[in-house]
Amino acid sequence: MVSVDLVALDLDGTLLDSHEQVSEANRAAIAATLAEGVRVVLVTGRGVEAPTEIARNLGISLPVICCHGALTKDVQTGKTIGHIPIPLVYAKPLLRYAEERSLDVAVYVEERFYRINTARHYMSDMRGPEWDEIATFDGLPRLAPTFLRFLGRDAAEAVREAFAELPLHFKFERWGEFEECAVTSREATKKRALENLCKTYGIARERVLAIGDSRNDVPMLRWAGIGVVMGNAEPDVRRAVGRVTASNDDDGVTRAIERYVLAGERTRSA
Fold first, then answer.
1. Which CATH number is 214's domain given?
2. Is residue 269 situated within a structural domain?
3. Which end of the chain, C or N, has fewer beta carbons within 10 A?
C-alpha cells in the first residue's frame, strides 16, 4: 500500500460547505492529518486573502496555491513563490472588450480585485476588503494581471466566442444558476502549481491525495496518486475522476481523509 504524504484541498464546494464554512469534522480531520506528519495544501481559484486566512486558522504552514494555479504564496512570510500572469498584450483587449459591451468582469492585479462600480454583485465577498470598485479600466492593469473573471452566463459565453483563439486558459465553471469564466495564462493550472510544489518538497505524485469538485480540478485530481471528487460535483466531473466521496455539506473531505490517510486504506482502488 502507498502512504499519503500530502493532501491537496480545493476550497469552494470541497473544504468549504455551502455556507462557505469549514465544518468541525473537516477541521478535526485536517488537525489529525497534520498530527500524523502529513502535509496539507490549499489549492483554490480564489485570490490570496481568503485561503491564507483559512490556512493560518487551520494550522496549515505550506504555501497556498491561489488564482487557479497562477499564484503561489508563502503563508508565513507572504513571499510570492510562483506567479504566472496574463501578458498585457492579451489582458488589455479582453478588458476593453468587456467594458465596451458592459460585461461584468473582475481583474486581479497586485493581489486585489478591481471591478466597474456599476457591475452586479454576484457574491457577498465582492464587497470585501480585497475588492475595489472603479469607474473605468483605463489605467488598469498597471502590471500584468494574475487572472480575469468574466461573471455571469452572458459574459462567460461572450468571452468564449470572441477570444477562444488566444493562447490563454479559459476555465468555465457553474455553481447552480451562476456561471463564470476565469482566464489565466495557459501555463497557470492547479495541476502544474501542485506538481511544482511537490517537487520542492520531494513528494512523489503517487503519495498525493487531492480532493476537488470543479472542472478545473480534474487535471489535478487525475495527476494525483489518489484523486477524489466531491459528491456535489457536476456529473461530468464525477465521471472524469471516478473516485467519489460525499458532498461538501456532508463532510466529504473528512470521509476521504479518514479512508485514504487516517485509516490506512491508501491504494488507488476505491
1. 3.40.50.1000
2. no
3. N
211 near 8, Cβ under 8 Å?
A: yes
Q: Averaged over 76-85, what is the pLDDT?
A: 94
For residues 242 and 219, is the Cβ–Cβ distance under 8 A? no
At 9, list the grid cell: 484541498
* Cβ-proximal residues to 55 (8 Å cutoff; 6+ apart), any chain: 42, 61, 62, 64, 75
What is the share, in percent, of the chain residues with pLDDT greater than 70? 92
Pairing outcome for strands 6-9 and 39-42: parallel
Give helix 88-100 / helix 153-163 axis angle, nearest 10°: 130
Alpha helices (H) in 103-234, listed in sequence order: 153-163, 190-201, 218-223
Give one word for 257, left, alpha or beta, with left for phi > 0 and alpha for psi -120 to 50. Answer: alpha
pLDDT tens-digit map of 205-237: 999 999 999 999 999 999 999 999 999 999 999
Q: What gap in Å lies between CA 119 and CA 98, rounded to an integer?
A: 11
Please indicate, yes or no, whether residues 69 and 202 belong to a single structural domain of this protein: yes
**Amino acid code (one letter) for 121:** H
pLDDT at 267 exceeding the cut of 50 = no
Which domain, by its residues, includes 129? 88-185
CA 248, 249, 252: angle at the middle one, nearest 5? 45
The helix or strand, by DSSP H or E, that contains position 174, with its residue range, turns out to be strand 168-175
Cell of 184: 489565466
d(CA 255, CA 246): 7
CA distance linking residue 209 with residue 212, whole number of Å = 10
Q: Are residues 192 and 204 in the same domain?
A: yes
- Residue 115 backbone dihedrals phi, psi, to 5 degrees: -145, 155
Cell 468587456 appears where?
A: 98
Cβ–Cβ under 8 Å, residues 211 and 7: yes
